């Protein structure tokens, strides 16, 4: 690795760390700017009880002191107790939901990647044929369709009209529809990305050389072209994770999947402050880290790329 | 050389060919094309693009109907039809299927009255669903339009200043852009929407803003805070490359002030890029609004938006799936045609951007 690449990586890591810090700070101060505090809306409590509760959660201290304590706690992965689910730590709730959500997200990402790359390669190979057109029209439609609409339509079609798949996402079979919902948009994007970069690669000299040597078409595609055509797909890893995380918020709602997205949305509706803060920070950090990794990978895989 | 070639070489002059051309001949030979501007040229290219034109007409039709239909339609989006003051609730208005009438309406029809049908039926509170969808479309379009306008204004100002001033100003504003750019936008939006909703509720009571609703205002604040960055980057990049042009130097030599140079020389030259990315920003804003409405952070009830209609319909999805399908189709249609039209604009007016 040359020093220029190292310098780039260092710069990106610093920006990422800084971004995570901004996320924590913004989250903290935004949530603390909300008037009334977290105990408003509970059944009326006497001022003494209110005082006692604020003291218990450290809310009576000056705001900067609370901020430093929170920052220290977050660095130790301590997000405090949930305000609404008695006796549970925020981190435990997140870890619980993460099991389901991670499964859902990873399966969706894997399918999106595999199907997208295969479809994109075929579309590039069969360029300007009927098949290519169909793929392009469908992917254009899927890319711009909001995930909650996709999910609802799939729910109506497969679970309510045809009765072939379960609507409730708490079982393994129930994950099929959520996975398809989350998968379609990234898959379409990867298909289009692969198609255009494959067309780009197929026009290069080394492919012509391989063809002149008499290498078979399949070998040219899968042995020579695909490796280079996939490089731009790496840059999509970060945005894909971001899409899947935000998509899972609504998809888990629609299909009643007991994951982190549903926990997050319900924490917003019942004003569980520590839960909102913890989930935002963890999910945001995940996305920032994934963006960092995909940017660095992109640079390392193809040193010709100048990212300045 | 053989004979044939010799024959060809011999000059066979026709005297007629050397006569001055008559007016008629001139008209035939010289075809004057009307002079064209870059704008007209782009328009011509846009007209040739069938996909973009079809999308454009869909947008126009949807927009006009969203504006005009609520003006003369006999039902209102918030009226519960079964409710008449001083009388018990007429339950037959609730959950009507499309084109069905309630019992009171049937009686009135028998009496010879003409009643406009409930095209999409009514909802669980007895409100005409068609007008709710139309009104929801209106809200969604308005939110998309104004949010893009805010993004345009802020992004344009900051981008232009950063690009033109350069140096420290540029560096600081671009670092800020970098950080906002790398924030996970949707999560930040949800966080801000949730907290602004709680913060604004109290302070807006009684002002005209309360009528618009805290959630729409927080949506605009969010767009003003987070979404200007890509516009600022774009404008800055354009200005940076335009700044080095000779005519800018000439203007500066003649004593033009910075504001003048930015307004008169730099901005008009990046107008096409700006218009295109604003056009592509609108579907993005509509999408965000419907997403937030779906999570319950969008417009305030009883005002409908396409996202909140879809979200409300989720409760009765077993019995009334069409109530979800209708707003879903409208959102998809709007977002898709705006995107395709934006792409068409880009291809027509800025072939350089095509990527």
Describe the structure.
Chain A is an all-alpha fold and about 300 residues long. Chain A has one domain: Orthogonal Bundle (MetI-like fold), CATH 1.10.3720.10. In chain A, about 75% of the residues lie in helices and about 0% in strands. Chain A has 13 helices and no strands. In chain A, helix 5 packs across helix 7. The longest helix of chain A has about 35 residues. Chain A is flat. With about 350 residues, chain B is mainly alpha-helical. Chain B has one domain: Orthogonal Bundle (MetI-like fold), CATH 1.10.3720. Chain B contains 16 helices and no strands. The longest helix of chain B is centred in the middle third of the chain and has 37 residues. Chains A and B meet through helix 1, helix 6, helix 11, helix 12 and helix 13 of A and helix 7, helix 8, helix 14, helix 15 and helix 16 of B.
Task: Write out key terms for the chains shown.
heterodimer; A: 308 residues; mainly alpha; MetI-like fold; B: 355 residues; 16 helices
> What proportion of the residues of chain B form beta strands (DSSP E)?
under 5%
From the alpha-carbon coordinates, what is the Rg of chain B to the nearest angstrom? 30 Å
Using the CA coordinates, give the radius of gyration of chain A: 24 Å
| Count of alpha and pi helical runs of chain B | 16
Strand content of chain A: under 5%
- Please provide the ordered H/E string of secondary-structure elements of chain B: HHHHHHHHHHHHHHHH
CATH architecture verdict of chain A: Orthogonal Bundle
- Overall spatial form of chain B: flat
CATH class of chain B: Mainly Alpha
Q: In the CATH hierarchy, what is the class of chain A?
A: Mainly Alpha
Major beta-sheet overview of chain A: none
How far apart are the first and last residues' alpha carbons of chain A, in Å?
Answer: 17 Å
Question: How would a textbook summarize the main sheet of chain B?
Answer: none
How many DSSP H or I helices of chain A? 13
Q: How many domain regions of chain B?
A: 1
In the CATH hierarchy, the third-tier topology of chain B is known as MetI-like fold
DSSP strand count of chain B = 0
Order of helices and strands of chain A: HHHHHHHHHHHHH
Q: Kindly report the name of the CATH homologous superfamily of chain B.
A: MetI-like
Q: What proportion of the residues of chain A is helical, as a percent range?
A: over 70%
Low-confidence stretches of chain B: none
């Amino acid at each position: 690795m040359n020093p220029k690449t190292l310098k780039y990586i260092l710069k990106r890591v610093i920006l990422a760390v800084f971004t995570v810090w901004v996320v924590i700070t913004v989250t903290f101060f935004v949530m603390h700017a909300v008037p009334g505090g977290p105990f408003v809306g509970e059944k009326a409590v006497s001022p003494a009880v209110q005082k006692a509760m604020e003291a218990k959660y450290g809310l009576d201290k000056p705001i900067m002191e609370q901020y430093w304590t929170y920052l220290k706690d977050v660095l130790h992965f301590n997000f405090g107790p949930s305000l609404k689910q008695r006796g549970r730590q925020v981190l435990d709730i997140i870890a619980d939901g993460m099991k389901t959500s991670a499964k859902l997200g990873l399966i969706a990402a894997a399918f999106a990647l595999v199907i997208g790359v295969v479809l994109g390669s075929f579309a590039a190979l069969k360029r300007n044929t009927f098949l290519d057109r169909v793929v392009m029209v469908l992917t254009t439609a899927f890319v711009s369709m909001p995930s909650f609409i996709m999910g609802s339509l799939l729910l109506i079609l497969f679970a309510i009209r045809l009765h072939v798949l379960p609507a409730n996402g708490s079982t393994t079979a129930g994950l099929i529809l959520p996975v398809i919902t989350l998968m379609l948009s990234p898959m379409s994007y990867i298909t289009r990305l692969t198609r255009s970069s494959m067309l780009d690669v197929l026009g290069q000299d080394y492919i012509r050389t391989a063809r002149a040597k008499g290498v078979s078409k399949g070998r040219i595609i899968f042995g020579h072209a695909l490796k280079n055509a996939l490089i731009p797909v790496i840059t999509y890893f970060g945005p894909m994770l971001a899409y899947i995380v935000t998509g899972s918020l609504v998809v888990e709602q629609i299909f009643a999947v007991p994951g982190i997205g549903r926990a997050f949305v319900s924490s917003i509706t019942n004003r569980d402050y520590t839960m909102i803060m913890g989930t935002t920070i963890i999910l945001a950090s995940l996305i920032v880290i994934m963006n960092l990794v995909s940017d660095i990978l992109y640079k390392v895989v193809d040193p010709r790329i100048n990212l300045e | 050389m053989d004979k044939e070639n010799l024959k060809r070489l011999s000059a066979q002059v026709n005297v007629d060919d050397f006569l001055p051309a008559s007016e008629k001949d001139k008209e035939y030979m010289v075809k004057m094309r009307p002079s064209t501007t870059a704008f007209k040229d782009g328009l011509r290219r846009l007209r040739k693009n069938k996909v973009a034109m079809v999308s454009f007409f869909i947008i126009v039709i949807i927009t006009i109907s969203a504006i005009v239909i609520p003006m003369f339609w006999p039902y209102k989006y918030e009226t519960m039809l079964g409710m008449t003051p001083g009388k018990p609730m007429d339950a037959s208005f609730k959950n009507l299927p499309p084109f069905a009438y309630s019992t009171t309406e049937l009686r009135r029809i028998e009496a010879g009255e003409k009643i406009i049908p409930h095209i999409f039926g009514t909802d669980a509170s007895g409100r005409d669903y068609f007008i709710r969808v139309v009104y929801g479309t209106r809200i969604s379009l308005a939110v998309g339009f104004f949010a893009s306008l805010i993004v345009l204004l802020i992004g344009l100002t900051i981008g232009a200043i950063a690009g033109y001033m350069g140096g420290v100003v540029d560096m600081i504003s671009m670092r800020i852009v970098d950080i906002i750019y790398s924030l996970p936008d949707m999560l930040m939006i949800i966080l801000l929407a949730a907290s602004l909703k709680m913060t604004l509720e109290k302070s807006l009571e009684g002002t005209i803003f309360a009528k618009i609703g805290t959630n729409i205002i927080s949506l605009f604040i969010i767009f003003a805070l987070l979404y200007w960055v890509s516009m600022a980057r774009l404008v800055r990049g354009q200005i940076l490359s335009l700044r080095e042009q000779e005519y800018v130097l000439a203007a500066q030599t003649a004593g033009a002030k910075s504001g003048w140079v930015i307004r008169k020389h730099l901005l008009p030259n990046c107008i096409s890029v700006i218009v295109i990315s604003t056009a592509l920003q609108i579907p993005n804003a509509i999408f965000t609004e419907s997403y937030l409405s779906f999570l319950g952070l969008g417009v305030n009830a009883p005002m409908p938006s396409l996202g909140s209609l879809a979200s409300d319909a989720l409760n009765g999805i077993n019995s009334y799936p069409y109530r979800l399908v209708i707003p879903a189709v409208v959102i998809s249609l709007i977002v898709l045609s705006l995107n395709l039209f934006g792409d068409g604009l880009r291809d027509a007016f800025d072939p350089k951007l095509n990527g």
